Every structure is written in structure tokens, then in C-alpha cells.
């Protein structure tokens, strides 16, 4: 299960709208658990993909700096997020090929209709869906 504060959820949605037709991405921060995590903050990271309209790739140096910032603030990395401006909330084949943090959440915000946030845990050999809850 992935629980987000209302502020964290809204921030992902606002970033997604702000990205227009390009995917946005970032790091989820809060309290990590093997089965349930809580997101208190989101940290955007530049989408460095060659084709940001259909892919996301976090700039590695910026991602590392954000992870250091999260840990320095006393929080933990909970997972990652990105948007699918015109697609569904489930992970694409490319998302599965690029997932590298087993046990962590990968949240996807879709805008094909009403904005919706779905989340999956990467289990090393595939994604497992998880329930998403928003506080407040």
C-alpha cells in the first residue's frame, strides 16, 4: 500500500499538468516499508529522456543529489513517480525494463480523463499493483 499526503498527491498532479505533453518524473520521500510506505514529500527531477513525450529518464546526477537531500532531511526514499500524459496508469514495457529498485513503489499519474495516480512495487521480476490512499 502507498499512502500519500494530500499535498504530495496534489503536487504530482500539478507537476503533471505543468509538463503538458511531456512526462514528468521525480522521487517519492517519506517512510519506507516492505509492504506499506507513506509519502510526505515529492522531489521533481528533470526528465532527461530523448523523447520526453513517451519516455522518462531521470538525470542521474540530479537523482543522486535529490536522494542525498532526502536522506539529509531524515526521510527515506519511498519510490519514484512519473506521468503518462495520454496513457494509462499501468507501467509500460519500458517502465519495467528500466525499474531498478526492488521493493520500492513506482507511481504513475495519468491524464486520460480525470487525473489518477496508480502505483506498483517492483519485485525484481515484474510489477505488483498496490493500493493507493490519500490522506486528507
UniProtKB/TrEMBL annotation:
Entries under SUPFAM superfamilies matching the protein: JAB1/MPN domain
InterPro entries hit by this protein: JAB_dom_prok, JAMM/MPN+_dom, Metalloprotease_DSAMP, MPN, VirAsm_ModProt
Keyword Oxidoreductase: no
Keywords, alphabetical: Hydrolase, Metal-binding, Metalloprotease, Protease, Zinc
GO biological-process terms attached to the record: proteolysis
Coiled-coil portions: none
Segments crossing the lipid bilayer: none
CDD domains, sorted: MPN_like (cd08070)
Gene Ontology molecular function: metalloexopeptidase activity; zinc ion binding
Domain MPN: 2-136
Protein name as it appears in the record: M67 family metallopeptidase
Species: Halobellus ruber
